[in-house]
Known about the structure:
By secondary structure, this protein is an all-alpha fold. The protein has one domain (27-251). The chain has helices at 27-42, 45-54, 64-73, 75-90, 92-104, 110-134, 136-146, 150-193, 202-219, 231-251. Helix 5 (92-104) runs parallel beside helix 8 (150-193) and helix 7 packs antiparallel against helix 8. The two termini are 27 Å apart. 37% of the residues are buried. Mean pLDDT is 89; it is low at 1-24.
Amino acid sequence: MNATSTLPRPSQTSSNTRATGGEGISTSTKALGALAVAHGLLAFAPVAILGAAIGWPASLGAPAAEQLKLIHQNAAMVTLGYTVYLLYSVLVAPLMIGLAARVWGTLAHPMAATVAAFATLSVMARSIGIGRWLTVMPELAAQHATTTDAAVRADIERTFSAITSYGGGIGEVLGVALFMGVAMGLWALGAWRAVGAHRVPRWVAAGAGLSALLLLGVAAPTFGAPLAVPMAVAVTTLSVWTLAVGAWLWMERR
């Protein structure tokens, strides 16, 4: 069967389209655009909140004792910042599912379903990684601040470092980088080949492909690759792309 035969024809656009001289803007497309813009903007909120409170993300490289002190001293802002970060991460799933439906016309298409699956895996992994900052880390920080026993403090610091490595491996390497990179890469391939009513501008598809490569580059060293892409570069590129795609979807004539 022809790969494009399952795609709806251009005439099969949403019944929600408002006609204006034979053209209109799909209500569902505008909603997806608004979601993309909101998601892109939310990416910068945790940096603003946590950056002001504890110097995040640079603070993640500080010694465990210093991080624990900062978390305890700024507990409320840490909770707020990571709550916003969790919201941003959860929105990955509906955004990618909507974008998959935009390209393939239905989530029943194998590629669309695969994109949705990897986006969901990304959210699950991110949530595990972020969850540690909302649960166990503040508790460790409080215990570290209230004990004067050097041996106990050392044990807490070792526990903190171990949980950080474990949570970071799941949340950042798998969630932010690998699973999201695969989802973006598959979407970029579908967007590049989309036709008819589901056609996507080349710059949108190319930007998605670039974002996918950068995200996969973040995860690459974990699997033995000698070259690493800085997380900040990959995430910033993805956020800028998301904002641009949101603006395009909002203004798209259908």
